[in-house]
Specification:
Blueprint: E1 2-8, E2 13-19, E3 24-31, H1 36-39, H2 41-59, E4 66-71, H3 77-90, E5 96-100, H4 101-110, E6 116-120, E7 124-129, E8 135-139, H5 142-145, H6 151-166, H7 175-183, H8 191-196, H9 202-206, H10 209-217, H11 221-243, E9 251-255, H12 262-276, E10 279-282, H13 287-300
Parallel strand pairs: 1-4, 4-5, 6-9, 9-10
Antiparallel strand pairs: 1-2, 2-3, 6-7, 7-8
Domain ATPase BadF/BadG/BcrA/BcrD type: 5-295
Protein name: N-acetylglucosamine kinase-like BadF-type ATPase
Keywords: Kinase, Transferase
Length: 301
């Protein structure tokens, strides 16, 4: 049985096609960002359609048993209804099943079982399932009032600290040179049109996070402070989500781009242990594979 799983995220859209009888990924494709709250409903659906079409073409197939789709920015039922309706306009969406990106990340992280997952990528959210299947979450409030500890938050803090140091309101740091080089600026004043005229370019700002990790490991105090605070915020987010479960849980899965950094993952692991006596483990499978698990469950219902 061939099922497609699509992770329509804030930075990219990933589609995989899985032979579920062999538990094997036979192809994958990747397109642009599809958080519909950011790029718009039509653009998000176009990226999803494009990713699916590319994956099917690469696999040399025309029919699938089902398609599972998890979308960033679609944490409410009314969001999913809008997306289902729009997808139905642009392609045959029979046996298409929709959920949030947090839900499919949980299913992928736990291998399809219950539990909780901390997602630290462009944004940040912690998500879990109660015994009866009811969904719980902490975070996911977006870049203006939330996303603490995320890649976007780290990149923005780096820019802030670079500016403060430049104006002698903080200790010197290499973050200024890092920001200038990363964004190909000649002076920090170029941040103003970059940030405000582009309406908070989340992906571009979040892309600064790995360079901040490198700078912290090289001993820059300001960069280290950002990393420590980000890890503390994410640990608090994880703790908050676990408190909402109706069963005792002393561990949480971790997924998202920031978790790929062994340096930052270790910081986060230490914060969880020190502050809340919690353990963390890396996701067993990808969020896209979680979308496959979700579709399988829906077919069985």
């Amino acid at each position: 049985m061939l099922i497609a799983g699509i992770d329509a995220g804030g930075s990219k859209t990933e589609c995989i096609i899985v032979d579920t009888e062999k538990d094997k990924i036979i192809t994958r494709a990747q397109t642009g960002a599809a958080n519909y709250q950011v790029v718009g409903l039509e653009a998000a659906c176009r990226e999803i359609k494009l990713a699916l079409e590319q994956a099917k073409k690469r696999a040399g197939i025309s029919c699938l048993k089902a398609v599972g789709i998890g979308l960033a920015g679609a944490g409410r039922r009314e969001d999913l209804v809008k997306i289902e309706r729009e997808m139905g306009k642009i392609m045959n969406s029979r046996n298409f099943f929709f959920s949030s990106d947090a839900h499919i990340a949980l299913l992928g992280a736990t291998g399809g079982s219950t539990g909780a997952v901390l997602i630290a990528g462009t944004g940040s959210i912690a998500y879990g399932l109660k015994k009866n299947g009811a969904k719980i979450r902490s975070g996911g409030w977006g870049p203006i009032i939330g996303d603490e500890g995320s890649g976007f938050w780290i990149g923005l803090e780096a820019a802030k600290k670079a500016v403060r140091a430049e104006e002698m309101r903080a200790e010197k740091t290499e973050l200024k040179n890092l920001v200038l080089e990363h964004f190909n600026f000649s002076k920090l004043e170029e941040l103003i049109p970059f940030i405000y005229q582009q309406q908070l370019p989340r992906q571009k700002i979040a892309a600064l996070a790995p360079a901040v990790f490198d700078l912290a490991q090289n001993g820059d105090e300001a960069a280290l402070e950002i990393c420590q605070e980000a890890a503390a915020e994410l640990a608090l987010l994880a703790h908050s989500a676990l408190l909402k479960l109706d069963y005792q849980e002393d561990k949480i899965a971790a997924a998202g781009g920031l978790i790929k950094s062994s340096y930052f993952y270790q910081l986060l692991k230490e914060k969880l242990r020190e502050n809340y006596e919690l353990e963390i483990y890396k996701a067993k499978k990808s969020a896209a594979y979680g979308a496959v698990f979700m579709a399988l469950r829906e077919l069985e219902n």
